[in-house]
UniProtKB/TrEMBL annotation:
Its main location: membrane. This is alkaline phosphatase. InterPro entries: Alkaline_phosphatase, Alkaline_phosphatase_core_sf. Keywords: Cell membrane, Glycoprotein, GPI-anchor, Hydrolase, Lipoprotein, Magnesium, Membrane, Metal-binding, Signal, Zinc. One of its GO terms (molecular function) is metal ion binding. The lineage of its organism: Eukaryota, Metazoa, Chordata, Craniata, Vertebrata. It comes from Zoarces viviparus. Residues 1-23 form the signal peptide.
Amino acid sequence: MASHHKLVFTGLLISISMQWTLSISEEELHASYWNNKARQALHTALNVQPNIHQAKNIILFLGDGMGVPTVTAARILKGQLAGESGEETSLVMDTFPHLALSKTYTVDQQMPDSAGTATAFLCGVKANYGTLGVTAATPRGNCRAVYGNEVTSVLNRAKKAGKSVGIVTTTRVQHASPSANYAHSADRNWYSDSDLTPEAIQNGCRDIAYQLVHNIEIDVILGGGRQYMFSNTTQDPEYPTYTGDRDDGQNLVAEWLKNKKNAKYVWNKAEFDAINPANTDFLIGLFEPKDCRYELERHASMDPSLTEMMEKAIKILSKNPKGFYLFVEDTGRIDHGHHGGRAKKALYETVEFDRAIGRAAELTSELDTLSVVTADHSHVFTVGGYSARGNSVLGVSRVLADDQKHFTTAVYGNGPGYREGTRPDVNETISSTNEYRQQAPVPLDSETHSIEDVAIFAKGPMSHLFHGVQEQNYIAHVIAYAACLEPYENCDLPPPDRAGSIHPSLLLLLMSLLLLSLCSV
Ligand SMILES: *[C@@H]1O[C@H](CO)[C@@H](O)[C@H](O)[C@H]1NC(C)=O
Ligand SMILES: *[C@@H]1O[C@H](CO)[C@@H](O)[C@H](O)[C@H]1NC(C)=O
Ligand SMILES: [Zn+2]
């Protein structure tokens, strides 16, 4: 696009002599541009054919806290990082053909959390706030009420059906979202035995780290969470002032490695890079004592990125001819960025998350792999306020507020961005820093989740079942059905499409070449 016209807007308020420039591509001024673009989209839509084969592989991407406003803002950020105005950019997830909305409330709360929601979309049953892998008959914190109320995850059912299974996350692997894949716990905070309440100990409940090792054989486990695996006398290898968190003296990594062939434990990037997927069948990588660092602050020499972890996982798991189930969560850090009222961290994490989704598409085939991207819940985060086209998504409005001060277009409904007294003025230099907290009218030391629906993006076998406005637990059912897992073993779907034989787009190309050669005769 050679010819960019510069349109110059003058601020609506003249109190400050400031000019806002924005670039609009010249072609957007013509009806033909929009008509052609829409015609192409229509053509694509008319050619969407549901794939009614069984899914061999399943990848569930969870953007923890990745509400629709976060997706929109991350899309703009991605474009702006590439030097574009951003609004017109597409995230990889934007290109998925099938979408639905997910109602995220838990049985007891309008505003959900990651544990109750993970139970819904991973196990297929709605639960209470703060509980994992149990029905709503288990009140939070009541260990005794766990027994008999356990629900089974799709990961568990995939393993039973002979698939390889894995968990990749940038949070601790015992965190609420990943742990609903394998644990049953009345409280999401029972990370290690030292977190258990007297009632939980008395009634024999096990901590989440213990369950990670003992409940289901998980082939690949990558993320943070080292401290919950080691005894309180074991020094952390990376931070010598840290020790493990376990009072029971157990070394759960050693437990996990026991009786496994071709199994490895790694805790840093060099060891991780040395893992050859071809001769590794089981891999546990724990790169931080608790959560991994924000992508913005990652030590690239010490910790692999989400994309790198996911890539290694897919290469190990896809050796199984029966296929695999992989849970990929970035965004523990999207959620944590928002809780801290720091939009920049949440949005950069979301862009990295989308990059992982793109990389997964290169490593798998849409013909036999069902990919689902969703969020557990949203946040009280939004972007607005008279922002011009191409305005930095972390920048300020082009008009002043009624108090004659600037304001960021990204804001929170509550949280630590609240300031006592008069509202501080702000400029883009300040609002673009990593630590900047967008303003919020309600003081809370942690910004809250939101109750609004979140999106489900899907592609691959049976992905067309994601349509309409659905309860969140519907997700686990579609995944189980698509892969003919319990309770849908009799799904009656034709066997997985043989990916890798001939790609449909290649077939199309061959056919059009054939047609061309016929026409030219
Ligand atoms: C470590 O665990 C032991 C029990 O094995 C306990 O007595 C002790 O208080 C724990 N230490 C810390 C620092 O938590
Ligand atoms: C932004 O605000 C800070 C703090 O008031 C100030 O030091 C800085 O010069 C301002 N930057 C711009 C570009 O106006
Ligand atoms: Zn949260």
